[in-house]
Amino acid sequence: LNCKIVQSEEFVNCGGIYTLVDNSILRVVSPNYPEKGYPNNANCLWQIRCKVNMVKMEMKFFELEQYDNYTCPDRLWLSLPGDVQHEAELQQQLNNHGCNSWPEKLIFKHQAPFSFNLTFESDEQFRYRGFELEITGKDLGPPVPADCGRTYRLKKRNTKFALHTPNWPLNYPKNSKCKWTIENPLHDQGHYIKMEMIHFDTLQPHHMLIIHSKDDETRHQFTGQINNKNKLYFFKTEGLEILFLSDNNYYDGKFHIEVSTTKQAECPRTKVRCPGTDICIPMKSICDGEIDCPGEHDENLSVCNVHKNCGKQQIPLNIELKESIATKAKPGSWPWAVSIHSYTFPKQVLCEATLISPKWILTTAYCALKISKNTAEYFVRIGSYWSNEMEESWEFDSNITNFYFHPDHQSDNNNDIALILLQNGVPIPFNKRVNIACLPEIDIPLGRRPKYANTGWGSTDLDNKKQPLYQAITSPLSIYKCNSTLKWFQPITNHMLCSFYKKPENLDILNKGGPYMCKNDESSQWQLHGTIMNYTRAWDEEEDEEKGFVVYTSVVAFINFIWQTMFNYENAI
User: Fold this and answer.
1) Distances (CA, A) of 157 to 22, 185, 192, 551
2) What is the mean pLDDT of the chain?
């Protein structure tokens, strides 16, 4: 008779000592999990030492022996230091679950370093499957003070600083109290205090930002969201006192304000400033026949002589307004398309642009920077059909007086827009093959079934052959879809636009700085909505096919910069 002796699992010692650091994950499981149930007489102690100030515990599985909610021969319990934040609330969560269940998620905070324990015990009776617990450590940085503030002095013209809620860019703590004092010694020289709300969440009724002017006792109180049209505030004062208060309720919110000094108050986005004054006039009043600015700047712009016929074509198109393969344009049918050349290689199109005034063309800052070293070496060709030569009497070249790109232009294509001032200007009246494109108006809907088009000579070689102007109808694309498709591209912002071609070979006609034109079915005029920043082929995963994608600088996003530049510099020459 052969007998096999099996030793029973009457006692199991498990657990251990572990250390949690930032982003580390510890997996705590009952003995034998998940292969089989935990043994009888288990006695496990996990001692966890934390070098972080936040711990998150997530229960992935939990099944212990129990008879009712508070009669549990087998149990897992948590031992925390008495000074853990919200320790009483955590214990209440555990008590509410009794011993036969466990909260799905527990989060607690304590100043590092600290320790806590987990203990598991089972009796000699039945076995159950056990538990699996995942513990994550996170370093939240130093404790967040609820009070903040200091005194700032705008002693130089380029002084700039930021005011923000405690714990920025995370949410501010409860019972916050911040007081900032801003001194403006340049006040006597006509400098304003400029405040720009970079980020401003809606504040609760009892959470408020109060701005108090020292000079005139003016008090501004913000308890709601800053309207996009009112993100800039100017204070003609020697100083400000700014107070931020919150109550004892937690709130998902924050703000970030940039403060600097400026000589003149900037106008709202729907207005422009009359040069040399603090007078802001609506853009709609430009070229309306009534004088609104001292010096008559609003009626003396060269565009005022031709603006009523902007965007109109005297040479009809030879293309249907629906997407198809790019085709050769009819000479003169896109009368605002212009090209930029160098005198060294006059047959090469360096960049493209759009005529928006007899004296101005609009392009990208990328193109303006190309000519920035010596404008005398470059010229603009207007009314041309062929890329490499001027053949007809209605075509002419103009030298460049100056260029003005957006002051906040960055190398990553943000604010990629520029205006170029023509030295000669375009003779008025225009001939049949020259005209300006219309500039869009802010907050004016496009109407029904807008159509979008690109034109271009493409990227040409130094020895390129004679190449005509091409045209193609393109389809608009949302910023969301554009970002999700062009994942490798820089983030596409609200200052940009996108379109696509089902036929990606249409991209071959494009060049940077070229126009993105829009026209409504009901309108006979074309508006300039964008200038080409970049274009590429990419795979559309939703439709499982390759397409051509184009990214533009949005003209309407910079319409204030465009009009203000023409105001400031056209009549100053």
Assistant:
1) 43, 10, 10, 36
2) 84
